[in-house]
Write a structure and sequence with these properties.
Elements lengths: L7 E3 L3 E3 L3 E7 L3 E8 L4 H8 L11 H12 L7 E8 L10 H10 L2 E8 L7 H9 L6 E4 L2 H12 L10 E8 L3 H4 L1 E2 L2 E2 H20 L1
Parallel strand pairs: 3-8, 5-6, 5-8, 6-7
Antiparallel strand pairs: 1-2, 3-4, 9-10
Helix pairs in contact: 2-3, 5-7
Length: about 210
């Protein structure tokens, strides 16, 4: 019997393995809370569980992107590489450090999807669109309700097409600025909404690879 951590081989498709997930937050700086692990790894669940207990910071988007691209550039060969950047505000450290990181992501075939979270009047939609457009197949999405964020994260989970489907390395880079803890969405703290959506994504990936 194959275990969850084992690689699968198909003569036509080459080496395939279960999806790997990482969780990074950015406030004053970026923190890699969990490196690339399978959805079954207890560390991933523990990291998600602690999201709403983090210390808020500013909105250093550039640092979050750099950490995500650095991590994904070292992902195992053969995996698709995708970064999901979620922000509910505007970067407080300028945009100068972002363009080189996006260019590096494109060179490494890392696609960046950006999510404008919460009130559309607060997050920087032009910047988020530009970041996504700078990679090969990046997309910008909007999530102004808890339900929409759940839908976005279900899309992030991907779809498995057969036993030998190509796996994906995914880095979730989450805004941990003060507004994520002070502002509410559908009656809940914004970071708690993110936490619930991440739980749903983990459950889907576990079912997909079980």
């Amino acid at each position: 019997m194959l275990h969850h951590h084992q690689f699968h081989r198909s003569p036509a498709a080459g080496v395939r393995c279960p999806d790997l997930v990482s969780l990074i937050t950015f406030g004053d700086d970026a923190t890699v809370h969990c490196g690339l692990v399978s959805a079954f790894d207890p560390k991933l669940a523990a990291t998600v569980d602690g999201l709403d207990r983090l210390t808020p910071g500013w909105t250093n988007t550039a640092a979050g992107l750099r950490a995500g691209v650095d991590l994904l550039s070292r992902a195992p060969r053969g995996l698709r590489r995708r970064l999901w950047l979620l922000s509910d505000g505007r970067t407080t450290h300028g945009l100068a450090g972002i363009a080189p990181t996006v260019a590096r992501a494109r060179k490494c075939w890392i696609n960046i999807n950006t999510v404008g979270f919460g009130d559309p009047r607060e997050f920087d939609e032009p910047a988020l669109r530009a970041i996504a457009a700078g990679t090969h197949n990046g997309r910008f999405l909007m999530a102004d309700t808890a339900e929409k964020l759940g839908q976005v994260f279900r899309k992030a989970a991907g779809h498995r097409e057969g036993r030998f489907a190509r796996g994906e390395a995914t880095a979730f880079v989450i805004d941990a600025s003060g507004s994520m803890f002070a502002e509410k969405m559908n009656g809940r703290q914004r970071m708690q909404v993110v936490k619930k959506a991440m739980y749903g994504l983990i459950a889907y990936k576990q079912a997909m690879w079980s």
